[in-house]
Amino acid sequence: MLGTRDELKKLMKKKFMAAGMHDDHADDMAEVLAWSSERGLHSHGEVRVEYYTEHISKGGMTVDPKVAWTQTGPRSGILDADNGCGYPFAIEGMQKVIDMAKEHGIGFVGVANVSHTGAIGYYTEMAAKQGMIGLSCTQSDPMVIPYGGAEPFYGTNPIAIAAPTADGRIVSFDMATTVQAWGKILDAKSAGRSIPEGWAVDEDGRPVTDPHKVNALVAIAGPKGYGLMMMVDILSGVLLGVPAGKHVSSLYHDLSEGRRLGHLNVAINPEFFCGDQNFREHMSEVLDELNATKPGVGFDKVYWPGERAQKRIQATKDVGGIEMWTTSTTTSSPTTCTATAGTTRTASRSRGAARGGLAGATCRRPSYRLAILHKRIRGTLEYAWRSPGAAPWRAPCHFTALTCDSRNIHSASRWAAIIDRSAGSQ
Ligand SMILES: NC(=O)c1ccc[n+]([C@@H]2O[C@H](COP(=O)([O-])OP(=O)(O)OC[C@H]3O[C@@H](n4cnc5c(N)ncnc54)[C@H](O)[C@@H]3O)[C@@H](O)[C@H]2O)c1
């Protein structure tokens, strides 16, 4: 099933508002997630919806935060978000640095005590659209060994930089400082595939290819990536006075606790350096020259950072929208179980009760066509989609199960987006 960006955004916003978020915060959140999804960045798109709503319902994400802004200098400040949702405050922080840079040439703003900020390229592109060079970096939960270590210490700590050109193109570099995301390990686990050497290590710090033996991820480019990951943690964590390194909170461990993350935004105004027009024209030239560079064997062309994302946005439009049904973790093994309709229990609340069996099937309203099954098998949860045309909810139904780890509730969220979709006018 395809949905346009606007449709997807509307569905997500509706869910966030139903979870108790204010209209403007829900809008910002859905906007950044839709921005990610239309670029094919599904790991940071609609798949996160269920996690956030669960985080809100358990009290870990404040829907009514007491936000405190401290202007620490003409070009600097700290926005304390009181464990509010990451997206609106990362946006607010970026707008503050853009305004500072417009006036003073540069701005530095830390967003402290905030929740997950998602795909951070969104914020740097905000700056580039207003003629600035934007930089963002943020903390994430410890799952990466420091170079030479055997225990997780840092997060996937992403960093992004974006810059404008004279012709509307935006160079947008946005990356995690790990070789691979945790989600890719979970995908391999679910699909029964091995992972390439160099992605992850076991409990003794040995490289592993069996996803079941993975204890931690590794940084890009050995000690260099490790150093960069550490610098991200210093700039977005230690500098802002929030927990850092191995003390950064876990994304999934205790959803009743605030994340207390740090996020840094920087904007630089080219007008205060080589001049705005000069900068933009030079940037356009550089991009053209990169595109004109002879491609290496096995490559079709040389792309600049962010160019492929633009192609994916166009491809999404060409096919008529964002694919909302497929997931990389589908196992497609049909399972039979009895579903109990009419309950309003949420997925998280019924997990415990369902431990060890398939009896915990639940759906939020009888009219919905989706059930989420909860089953603890080797730490995994199973989410299921009832086959189209199956019997009514109170009868035994056939399900096609898809399995995902409890640290990867992505799939469930994608299905959850469909719950609202199938609810139609409700
Ligand atoms: N908030 C968080 O806690 C958190 C943590 C980790 C990652 N993230 C987000 O996850 C997203 C994905 O990160 P990732 O590291 O998987 O990104 P990625 O590996 O897909 O891309 C990294 C960068 O490389 C560029 N790139 C990729 N292929 C290219 C090519 N052929 N030619 C030129 N440039 C190319 C991309 O444009 C991008 O700027 C990012 O948006 C990041 O912000 C967020």
| Ligands | nicotinamide-adenine-dinucleotide
Annotated CATH topology of the domain at 68-178 and 219-305? Ribosomal Protein S8, Chain: A, domain 1
The tally of beta strands, per DSSP, is 15
| Structural class determined from secondary elements | alpha+beta
| CATH architectural type of the domain at 68-178 and 219-305 | 2-Layer Sandwich
Describe the largest sheet. Answer: 7 strands, mixed
- Biggest β-sheet: strands ordered side by side in the sheet: 2-3-4-10-5-6-7
**How big is the Rg?**
22 Å
CATH superfamily of the domain at 68-178 and 219-305: Malate/L-lactate/L-sulpholactate dehydrogenase, NADPH binding domain
Distance between the termini: 19 Å
Give me the strand/helix succession: EHHHEEHEHEEEHEEHEHHEEHEEEH
| Total helical segments | 11
The residue fraction in helices comes out at: 25-40%
Sequence stretches where pLDDT stays below 50 over 5 or more residues: 325-426
Mean pLDDT, nearest integer? 79
Give the overall shape, derived from the CA principal axes.
Answer: globular
Tell me the strand percentage band.
Answer: 15-25%
CATH class of the domain at 68-178 and 219-305: Alpha Beta
